[in-house]
Amino acid sequence: MEKKERGRYGEILSASLKLGMTSFGGPAAHLGYFRDEYVKKRQWLDDRAYADLVALCQFLPGPASSQVGIGVGLIRGGIGGAMLSWFGFTMPSVIILMLFAYLVAGDVPFDTGWIRGLKIVAVAIILHALIGMGKKLTPDAPRIALAVLAGAGVLLVPTAWGQIGVIVLAGLVGYILYRNRQAGNGGDDATIPMPIGKKAGALAWVLFFGLLALLPVVRQAADHILVSITDSFYRVGSIVFGGGHVVLPMLEREVVPQGYMDAETFIAGYGAAQAVPGPLFTLSAYIGMIMDNVPGALVAVVAMFLPSFLLVVGTLPFWSVLRKKTWLRAALTGVNAAVVGILAAALINPVIPSSIFSVWDVAVAALCFWLLQFRKTPPWGVVAVAGVLGALLHAFL
């Protein structure tokens, strides 16, 4: 391996590890952290390319924030970079949840003060990301209107299919409005470097559908707990639209009725997963640990995220070519505006209702936003401040 390539892999791993240890607040907040790290700080891609990647991952089943991280790693360092980006972002919470599974005793209290602060900081992080993305992606009245309508549509139809429908309609409107003009702002003509080719992408699609079809057959033929875990978690990871929270009822149906654990133990793990950084899909580590100790946890995590990895690797090589087409560039202009609206909708519901309960919470959120927006404090520092303030509010108010 060349020294330059080793250095690039090191960059990807260190950046993703930092995000994996500090990205609290759920998928919408993760996208804000990613933008700060990959777009603003490291400049591995620009806002328009980042929004294109976010829009693509919204179309795909699986955890959108993890897929965006995989996509950034793929763009930066090929398949190896994608794997390192996923590993760094995912493993910190996987390890924590494996420890939770080892120590949990049914009624462990997770509603502590520092968790209150971590919920509050998500509001500031998302608002900070909204302002930055909005300046670049909604610079005129039509795109502002499109963002507002997209946000309203997602709030009125709060389902995964509603979100996909909004993105499709936004692309159609963008095509109608911008098909006869350049999208402008200097980002559209930049080519996203793609270290893998279309053959690798096609192979990833074959593997995705092949595993989806073959794993249930193998499960019937080989009555083994690890095969059962692989089949269950791969299937759930392949068909979940709408983010991590949607995975809760699907996983519950896979493990509780079969007697692997009781409902209380399952919900305890879900509470723990909300309290750690990184993607909510790492709940699979907790469940797998209870089902078959460390091997079960590792198999569950890999099976849960493998569909997302294959989908991103399979789609991005074609996406980088398609996005240069005039008609698609026009459509992406609309989709990019819609992404801003969708992020705003996530802030309105569920982030604010589940995070802000008093005027003190508003004050902490305002302070965190001020630190991010005006003091340029690193996100991990703001998370630490929010955790301390949340604990103080919990103790004294």
UniProtKB/TrEMBL annotation:
Keywords, in A-Z order: Cell membrane, Membrane, Transmembrane, Transmembrane helix
Which is an annotated Pfam family here? Chromate_transp
The entry's localization annotation reads: Cell membrane
Main localization of the protein described in the UniProt heading: membrane
- Would the keyword Manganese be found if you checked this record's keyword annotation? no
Record's keyword annotation contains DNA-binding? no
Q: For this UniProt entry, which segments traverse the membrane?
A: 84-105, 117-134, 146-178, 202-221, 233-251, 297-319, 326-348, 354-372, 379-396
**InterPro entries the UniProt entry points to:** Chr_Tranpt_l_chain (IPR014047), Chromate_transpt (IPR003370)
Protein's membrane topology: Multi-pass membrane protein
Q: Which domain of life is it from?
A: Bacteria
As for family, the record states:
Belongs to the chromate ion transporter (CHR) (TC 2.A.51) family.
Q: What is the name listed in the Swiss-Prot or TrEMBL entry for this protein? A: Chromate efflux transporter
Q: Which organism is it from?
A: Bhargavaea beijingensis
